[in-house]
């Protein structure tokens, strides 16, 4: 069932698994504000029974990043150019960037597990979109790069927090400040991706992972995800307490006993 298909974003749902496809292969799925609004809308349209969201890109590249048209005086039709935004007030610029970030923030909701299936280039905004997901499966030809600093900008689409969490501060700084490519072997070694497969096996490997994630009861996965997601911000003792509280909820639920 197709729930959304516009601005280079297509959302389909098959029972408990939703697929969000970047569908502008002719431009290597380059991103625009219209695409970001469509991505944010996709998150709001998910039926309540969806447990897994797969994010993929059509064509040879996952996403080549921000469409450079954004930096031209003309910008995109019906959109303020980035140059115009820069001339506005601090409040207006902050609000606009916050709106753009909404396309990148819903993928880690506790009630979902999101998987990015990444092939070819994942540059800048494309890299950050892959980082927005909980898990990443990569093809052997993948090339991640954070090119914003090379353009005199910073990564601002919610990608810095997950990147530091995955690879640590020092390596994240080196990756962002140099803008270099991180290829498949290194990405798997440093924990940036969960699995690397031949390009022809990317869809099948992602489907296998999605199926494995739906094997356990949904509430147990939700509680476990919340425990793990909050662990970095808790002390050891706080995490122990959180584990006990979560397990008590699960045991009561299994026993049919209310809180």
Can you give me a brief rundown of this structure?
The protein is α/β, with parallel strands linked by helices and 259 residues long.
Mean pLDDT: 95
Order of helices and strands: EEEHEHHEEHEEHHEHEHHH
- Total beta strand runs: 10
State the end-to-end CA separation: 38 Å
Shape: globular
DSSP summary: helix tally:
10
Question: How would you describe this protein?
Answer:
There is one protein chain. The protein has 259 residues and is of the alpha/beta class. It has 10 helices and 10 strands. It has helices spanning 33-44, 82-86, 90-105, 125-132, 160-167, 169-178, 184-189, 202-213, 218-231, 236-255; strands spanning 2-6, 9-14, 17-22, 52-57, 113-118, 121-123, 135-139, 143-145, 182-183, 195-197. The longest helix is centred in the last third of the chain and has 20 residues, at 236-255. The protein is globular.
SSE topology sketch:
Blueprint: E1 2-6, E2 9-14, E3 17-22, H1 33-44, E4 52-57, H2 82-86, H3 90-105, E5 113-118, E6 121-123, H4 125-132, E7 135-139, E8 143-145, H5 160-167, H6 169-178, E9 182-183, H7 184-189, E10 195-197, H8 202-213, H9 218-231, H10 236-255
Helix pairs in contact: 1-3, 5-6, 9-10
């Amino acid at each position: 069932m197709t729930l959304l298909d516009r601005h280079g974003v297509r959302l389909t749902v098959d029972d408990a698994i939703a697929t969000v496809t970047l569908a502008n292969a002719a431009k290597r799925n380059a991103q625009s504000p219209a695409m970001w609004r469509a991505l944010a809308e996709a998150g709001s349209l998910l039926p309540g029974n969806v447990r897994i969201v797969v994010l993929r890109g059509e064509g040879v590249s996952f996403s080549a990043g921000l469409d450079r048209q954004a930096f031209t005086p003309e910008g995109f039709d019906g959109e303020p150019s980035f140059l115009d935004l820069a001339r506005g007030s601090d409040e207006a610029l902050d609000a606009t960037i916050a709106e753009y970030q909404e396309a990148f923030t819903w993928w880690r909701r506790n009630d979902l597990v999101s998987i990015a299936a990444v092939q070819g280039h994942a540059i800048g905004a494309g890299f950050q979109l892959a980082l927005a997901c909980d898990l990443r499966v990569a093809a052997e030809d993948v090339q991640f790069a954070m090119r914003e600093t090379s353009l005199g900008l910073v990564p601002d689409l919610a990608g810095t927090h997950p990147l530091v969490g995955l690879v640590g501060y020092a390596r994240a700084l080196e990756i962002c400040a140099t803008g270099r490519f991180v290829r498949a072997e290194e990405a798997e070694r440093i924990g940036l991706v969960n699995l690397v497969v031949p390009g022809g096996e990317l869809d099948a490997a992602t489907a296998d992972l999605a199926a494995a994630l739906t094997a356990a009861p949904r509430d147990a996965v939700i509680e476990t995800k919340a425990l793990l997601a909050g662990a970095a911000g808790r002390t050891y003792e706080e995490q122990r307490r959180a584990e006990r509280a979560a397990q008590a909820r699960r045991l009561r639920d299994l026993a049919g006993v209310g809180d």
